[in-house]
Model the fold of this input.
Amino acid sequence: MAVLNKIRQRSIFLIIIIALALFSFVLADVIQNGGFTSQKSLNTIATINNTDISREDFAKKVDDALRNLGPNATNAQAMNMVWNNELRKALLTKQFEELGLVVGADQLRNALAQNLAGNQAFLNEAGVFDNNKLQEYIADVKANNPPLYAQFIEFEKSVTQNALEQTYYNLVKAGIGATNAEGELEYRIENDKVDLEFVQIPYSSIPDSEITITESDITEYIKKNTKQFKTEASVDIQYVLFAENPSSKDDEAVREEIASLLSQKIEYNNITKQNDTLPGFKDTNDDIAFVSQNSEGKYQDRWWFKKDLPATIADTVFGMNKGEIYGPYKLDNSYNLLKVIDVRQLADSVQAKHVLITWEGLPSASETTARTKEQAKTLADSLLNVLQKDNKKFESIVTQFSDDQSAKENKGDLGYLTPGATIEAFNNYLFDNKKGDKGVIETDFGYHIVFIEDQKNVQRAIKVANITKAIVPSEETVNKIFVDATKFESSAASLDFLKVAKESEYDVRPVNKIGELEENIPGIGNNRSIVTWAFGKESKVGEVKRFNINNGYAIVQLTNKKEKGLLSAAEASISVTPILRNEKKAKKISESIKGSSLEEIAQEKNVQVKKANAITMKAPTLADAGTEPKVVGTAFGLKEGVTSKLIEGKNGVYKIKVLTRSDAPKTDNYTLYFNQINTKRAAQVNANVYNALKDKATIKDRRANFY
Done:
């Protein structure tokens, strides 16, 4: 009892201790998971210069972009497109606001006119944009089609934004025009010339093995040139692919299955309680029905020329007679049986003219068409009778009677048509009749008075019935692939990934420098789940994970994670080492030279004194030495007869002597040259200004948390 009384007396202290323990447990979990999650971080996908971009609005725009991009677009492509638009809008809108830029009514009207100039709905009879038609359209969709009106408002916002951007960039361009002095400088860069003689001691004269570049050398160079070596966060992975491909056993099973269709088979009929003899492909009387029942592909009711068939079978098949069968044969990833079911001589193209006669109610009829179907047929037959007597009246009949909207331009001439290029009834008439024939046919468009003007390249054509069966992995094969993938995943996770793969003779594919928002993995395709896993805070270097991919599995190991910052010495080595090596070679060469004149140095280093004539700053190339802007620039800074100091160039150490200088004569007008400068600057303004704004901006990009 005494113990219980003491506990009761100190209960407040126990409650505090328990509460602190619970809080520390929660706090540890929060720290482990990256801190508290604010509502803002959940609802904001990015912050650009203190302007938040709503996650919900962004997601809606991504969905819209996906629809507009079409079925082949990926979510990441749509997301990146929307991001670029939102980033651009945020950066430039701030500039517009600071400058007080707005789009006036007249400017917007002109911008809309330019964007809609190709839309027939907004053009008048003269083919010119009509603002009244646009206003009528806006009023109509606003009243009757709210979704379409909302689309137009978004379109108008886009046009307004583009107009503001154009105004902004034009203001910048107006402030960077070249001066006459700059034009003169450009003139001199192109036309001033210098003749010189030089000696070159190439860097290649010192073997690379004599020069040592240390990791600290590279690190120091990176520190001095940080802008060149900035890098975004990235990961490296390696993976083994387990593709669900059919085995040789699966291949043979499909071949045997399709081969069994050739001959009759006997099957027990549960209804009649008797054996039925089922015809095979060789002896069936209904080839089309047989294909429908036994093939994974549909029967194609068309005529085939030799050029239309796969090259591997064309010669053999075109030598076969009606009723003969070819196969089983393998084509791509399927086995096939092909039967020739008809043979004929057929033109490969037919030139035809037509007159279209419609009747009221047809989609192809105009609003003013009032004739009935019977009246249309009577008219068509009557016109055919006229044409049977006199072909020359065809053009006038087309002009007067044809309801084909294109008849005004083509006079009813359809040009040359290939088999299958038109609807069935029209196609059958063209290729079942001969040159010069005329007739009336009915289609969904109306009655056509058809005249066959010409037929080209009449040749052998065949109809075929083709049975196809895809070669796919069996359930046994799929299960084995899964087991193999799982075994490798388990072994690679606990042992050396490369060693385990080598022992099993699996190919390991490394992929380096994957960005946080990338989706394409070479050899795998688009797979955001792999990228998201690799960048996850809980994923550690060396971890292995299995991913389901199209047609199989990928066993992936995370081999490196790099934070945003500077390249490491190892990563930068490939580009920095040659630079530092040449710097050390230049120093070594310079220190070794004892002579002062070109001739002395040439004799000392066993090289020749060479000449270079008519060199300009625009093309700073020395014969047999390469492009050397520093050397040529030095030459233009010397007077005639003066010898330079040693110059460390791109390809070696040089000493030069200026022989003659030919300065181009002054002119009164440098317009051509400062126009060249203006054109070059104007072409670069948009990109350079935008990139400068982006570099200066404070951007917190959280897209990787959601996509």
Summary: The first helix runs from residue 2 to 9. Residues 249-345 form one domain. The radius of gyration is 40 Å. Confidence is low (pLDDT under 50) at residues 1-11, 13-37.
